[in-house]
Specification:
CATH class of the largest domain: Alpha Beta
Order of helices and strands: EEEEEHEEEHEEEHHEEEHH
Structural class: alpha+beta
Largest sheet: 6 strands, antiparallel
Strand content: 15-25%
CATH architecture of the largest domain: 2-Layer Sandwich
Number of helices: 6
Number of domains: 2
């Protein structure tokens, strides 16, 4: 398999993100998911084999699964033949206007939420019961949005700050949609043996409709934990890039560019976790 790090197509480049390259293709956009890995908002120099295909195909699975709940940015058109070699890692999408807010839903106390809870007893201004343990399930899912940083780190914001960014009406629509998607996805994933500890959605507006865009419920945008290994009270085994995060934190990386070179076994282990997440969630064998 050829690893796609830099696509460089003969098309107008609209954006090159940490993981995705987006090109203009007539009145549509061609969004390509590369094998680049971003952790702590820094892109690593080594690709993760098959990662882009996993993210793309898992997003397609969820877009289809959630289409009765909310619309998405996929078009009904086929990819032009000259780009068919990118078909497993690309989408032809509508030109939606992205909403300037990362829509994070948390069902369990982990990551930055756990760190804030230890310091303040709250997450994004939402008070939580005292005495909770790391990775413990919350009394109910909470909506904890963050800013969308072009460079550097996203920052958590409370409800009032979020409303100032997107407006009160849009905020309420985003919150309602995010919680509804998370609750349905979580129930489905549990039946497949996966806990969705938290996840991030991105929305856009297209013809006056709020739709899902970018990616949805992937190991890049979510914390996936194996249900059979779950024990509250500390970090969890995971199907996402937490495996690599744990390694670079252990070696004392300061989380600033440049990212360190990591051992091949960490790269391979990360790739295998992405593939396992895809297979468990979809019930399909991943084609390598």
């Amino acid at each position: 398999m050829e690893t796609v790090l830099k696509t460089d197509l003969p098309l107008k480049l609209v954006s090159r993100g940490k993981v995705r390259d987006t090109y203009e293709l007539g009145d549509k956009l061609l969004m390509i998911t590369t094998d680049r890995l971003s952790a702590f908002d820094v892109v690593f120099p080594q690709p993760i084999p098959y990662k882009g295909i996993v993210l793309n195909e898992l997003s397609l699975f969820w877009f289809d699964h959630m289409k009765k709940v909310i619309g998405n940015h996929l078009t009904s058109e086929n990819l032009p033949k000259e780009y068919s070699h990118l078909s497993r890692r690309s989408m032809l999408v509508k030109k939606a206007i992205p909403v300037k807010l990362e829509c994070v839903v948390r069902g369990y106390l982990s990551g930055s939420g756990w760190k804030e809870y230890k310091a303040k007893g709250s997450v994004c201004g939402i008070r939580l019961p005292p005495g909770m343990a790391e990775s413990e399930q919350l009394p109910g899912p909470i909506f904890t949005p963050s800013t969308k940083a072009e460079v550097g780190h996203d920052e958590n914001v409370n409800d009032e700050q979020a409303k100032r960014i997107v407006g009160a009406d849009v905020f309420e629509r985003l919150k309602e949609a995010s919680l509804r998607i998370y609750e349905q996805a979580s129930a489905y994933a549990l039946r497949k043996g996966i806990i969705i500890a938290d996840t991030k959605f991105e929305f856009g507006e297209f013809n006056g409709e709020m739709i899902l865009i970018d990616e949805v419920l992937t190991p890049d945008s979510s914390r996936f934990w194996p249900k059979d290994k779950y024990r509250a009270g500390g970090p969890q085994a995971s199907f996402d890039k937490q495996f690599l995060r744990d390694y670079v934190e252990k070696i004392g990386w300061d989380k600033k560019p440049p990212a360190p070179i990591v051992p091949e076994e960490v790269i391979k282990g990360t790739s295998e976790r992405y593939i396992e997440a895809y297979e468990k969630m979809t019930g399909k064998k991943f084609k390598r």
